[in-house]
Amino acid sequence: xxxYGFLLLLTICASTFSFAQVKAPSQQFWDLLATHCGKAxxxxxxxxxxxxxxxxRLVMHxxxxxxxxxxxxxxVGEDLSRTWVLTMDEQQLIQLKHDHRHADGSEDAVTQYGGxxxxxxxxxxxxxxxxxxxxxxxxxxxxxxxxxxxxxxxFTYNLRRLGSATLFSVRFxxxxxxxxxxxxxxWVD
Length: 189
Hints:
Blueprint: H1 2-21, H2 25-34, E1 40-47, E2 58-61, E3 64-66, E4 69-76, E5 79-88, E6 94-100, E7 113-116, E8 125-129, H3 132-137, E9 144-150, E10 154-161, E11 167-178
């Protein structure tokens, strides 16, 4: 009996150890993205192929990496108003918010919209369906689903509005860092 009890204890300890070593897909996604802290990259509009609202140089900068929060400014030409804010909660679920500012640093009337992942996603992809705050702020965006993909070579930010033809996708080449851009509107260095 002692032999079987020892084997059971050994089995429980071994399985606990192996589970403790495995990171959730969301944590692996986060860790990969965090390897780009401080770096900036140029991107291109994938879909639609052209949009006058996104004319100009497209740049993302993984500017701020704090415990549980990543802030990634997204610049369109001289427009420094947008920052993607990712936060991770205790259940390792990631939330995406869009922080929009005016040139004087004040918040835009349409800001802090986004959504939270409903599961830990995958190592390369995280989905963010529109949350209740977004539905109240932008009723037409109630069907929005944002997703971000990241791997060793690219970062892609995407938006699909369910029930419509709306699709927005911009891809950044992570193999070619560029010079660090200025701070986004509203940031104090």
